[in-house]
Amino acid sequence: MNRFYEQKKFFQWTVALIMLLVVGIIFYYWLELIQINLLAILLLFLITPVAQFLISPIMKLTGAYKYLSPMLLVYSPSTSKYDLHNGTSFDYLFFFKRKSKGSAWQSKLLIYYLDGLLEVINELENNVIPETIEIRGSSYFFSERTAQRLGFEIQETGFSEKFNIIINYLDLFWMYSLSKGKIHFPKLKDIKTATTTGQRLKEKKPELLKLRTYLINRSL
């Protein structure tokens, strides 16, 4: 888990609330600027990634983000759907190490994703969530082949998800570049949405464990 969340709760809440206040101030002045010049709307592409970084702690502390592993989380978890998301830029700040860039970082990310999926299976096995639960996520960070191997079906990404990725493109750009070990501009047409059910994911546990072991051995 992110080292920030290992600190005392009082410290976490204090920092989280200060960061939330900063977000409020940023949006206040942004809205004021829009009234002066409509072109300020374009700042949305800069403000959104900054805001996402700043609200990460409060989202975790209030339960809006549920972490399955250090780099895989569920947004607004329920017993009917788990909407999977990559770790935030706030998490990257704590986990990324310069020496682990490129293929080493990609392998590490995949291990974190697999750990998260195995945690979902653990919840299924302990009846925390039902096998009918829908599990889905949109990402550049997995291949269609790997997703299908793990029991996921690839679907067309919805407009709202595409729009969310567009306004967070700056975040996506630098995180994806880190994972590649070089400057890389993700193509929006490469966005993938993968879906499965708790039952299908549970059946893929041996595959998940096998792939995890392979990645760990490869990174040694």
Give descriptors for this structure:
about 55% helix, alpha+beta, about 220 residues, 9 helices, single chain, 6 strands, 6-stranded mixed sheet
Write the layout of secondary structure elements.
Blueprint: H1 9-36, H2 44-61, E1 65-69, E2 72-75, E3 81-86, H3 89-95, H4 103-125, E4 134-139, H5 144-149, E5 153-155, H6 159-167, H7 169-180, E6 192-197, H8 198-203, H9 205-219
- Mean pLDDT across all residues, rounded? 88
Quickly count the helices.
9
Strand content: 5-15%
Proportion of residues in helical segments? 55-70%
* Main sheet overview: 6 strands, mixed
Could you explain the architecture of this structure?
Helix 1 packs antiparallel against helix 2 (44-61) and helix 4 runs antiparallel to helix 9. This protein has 9 helices and 6 strands; from the N terminus they run ααβββααβαβααβαα. It is globular and about 60 Å long. It has helices spanning 9-36, 44-61, 89-95, 103-125, 144-149, 159-167, 169-180, 198-203, 205-219; strands spanning 65-69, 72-75, 81-86, 134-139, 153-155, 192-197. The chain has 220 residues and is α+β, with helices and mostly antiparallel strands. The mean pLDDT is 88. The two termini are 21 Å apart. Strands 1-2-3-4-6-5 form a 6-stranded mixed β-sheet. A hairpin with a 2-residue loop joins strand 1 and strand 2 (72-75).
Please summarize what this structure is.
With 220 residues, the chain is an alpha+beta fold. The chain has helices spanning 9-36, 44-61, 89-95, 103-125, 144-149, 159-167, 169-180, 198-203, 205-219, and strands at 65-69, 72-75, 81-86, 134-139, 153-155, 192-197.
